[in-house]
Design a protein that fits this description.
It comes from Flammeovirga yaeyamensis. By secondary structure, the protein is of the alpha+beta class. Helices cover 37% and strands 28% of the residues. The protein has helices at residues 10-20, 75-79, 99-117, 121-131, 142-153, 162-170, 207-218, 225-231, and strands spanning 3-5, 26-27, 33-34, 38-41, 44-56, 59-68, 85-91, 96-97, 140-141, 181-187, 191-196, 199-205. It is globular.
C-alpha cells in the first residue's frame, strides 16, 4: 500500500505543531469564514487565491480557502503544478456528519422524545447541547457526499484510486463541529497530505488521486461551480 494511515500520539502531535503549525481561520456569527490573506508553510509564504462556501439547501456546510505560491485563475495550471498548494476546509454546519454520527444523534433525539413525555426538560436541553443539533432531519452524510463529488468531478473514472477515496471519507467519521479545520496539502505531482485540526491523518502518494481531489474543488466538472469560481477569483 502506498498510503499511510496515522494514529497521532501526543509526542508526534507536539512535534508536528512545533515544526509546521497551521493557521486557524475564524468562523463568524453568520457562519462565514475569515480566511487569512497569507499563510506560512514549510518555510514558504502562500497567498490566498480565493475563498468560498459550499451551500446545501439552507446550510453552509463548509468553507474553503485555496492557497498558492503564485496566484492563478487557471485550474489546469494549479492542478498540474508541482508547487505547494493548500486547501483549508473549515466546517460551518453541524449538519455535515458521518453516518455513524448521524445515527448517534438520531438515537439521542429518540431518547429526548421519551424524556419529553416525563417532563425531564433539563436532561433534554443537555442532550441537545451535547449533540449541537435540535432537529436531526436535514443531515448531509459525509461519505456519500464525497463519493458523489469524486465521481462527478472525475467523469466516474475513479477505479484506479477508489480505495484512497474510502480512506479520505473515513477522516470525517468523528463528529464534526463548527470550526473544525481540515487541511489538504498538495506536494509535487503525487503527494497529498490530509490533516484534521493540525493532526496528520493521511499521506497518499498517488498522482491520479491528487488530481482527482483538486478536481472536486476546481476541476472542469467540480460539483459546486460557485465555490470553484470563488477559489479561482484571483
Amino acid at each position: 500500500m502506498k498510503y499511510i494511515y496515522f494514529v497521532v500520539f501526543f509526542v508526534s502531535t507536539f512535534f508536528s505543531h512545533s515544526v509546521n503549525a497551521q493557521d486557524q481561520h475564524d468562523v463568524t456569527l453568520l457562519y462565514n469564514v475569515d480566511f487569512k490573506k497569507k499563510i506560512e508553510s514549510y518555510g514558504k509564504t502562500l497567498q490566498l487565491n480565493g475563498g468560498g462556501t459550499y451551500i446545501k439547501s439552507i446550510h453552509k456546510l463548509f468553507s474553503c480557502g485555496l492557497y498558492l505560491e503564485k496566484p492563478s485563475n487557471d485550474p489546469l495550471k494549479i492542478i498540474y503544478s508541482e508547487e505547494l498548494r493548500i486547501i483549508d476546509l473549515v466546517i460551518t454546519s453541524n449538519q455535515f456528519q458521518s453516518q455513524r454520527t448521524i445515527d448517534e444523534i438520531k438515537d439521542l433525539h429518540e431518547k429526548n422524545k421519551e424524556l419529553l413525555k416525563s417532563g425531564k426538560f433539563s436532561t433534554i436541553l443537555q442532550n441537545i447541547k451535547e449533540a449541537d443539533v435540535v432537529l436531526p432531519n436535514t443531515f448531509v452524510e459525509t461519505s456519500h457526499f464525497f463519493e458523489n463529488a469524486f465521481a462527478t468531478s472525475n467523469n466516474y473514472a475513479t477505479d484506479n484510486y477508489h480505495s484512497y477515496i474510502s480512506d479520505f471519507a473515513k477522516i470525517f467519521e468523528d463528529k464534526n463541529t463548527i470550526g473544525d479545520h481540515y487541511r489538504f496539502e498538495f506536494h509535487g505531482e503525487d503527494d497529498t497530505k490530509i490533516f484534521r485540526d493540525n493532526n496528520l491523518l493521511l499521506d497518499i502518494h498517488h498522482k491520479e488521486f491528487q488530481n482527482a481531489l483538486l478536481n472536486v474543488f476546481i476541476g472542469g466538472n467540480a460539483p459546486n461551480s460557485s465555490l470553484k469560481d470563488d477559489l479561482l477569483s484571483k
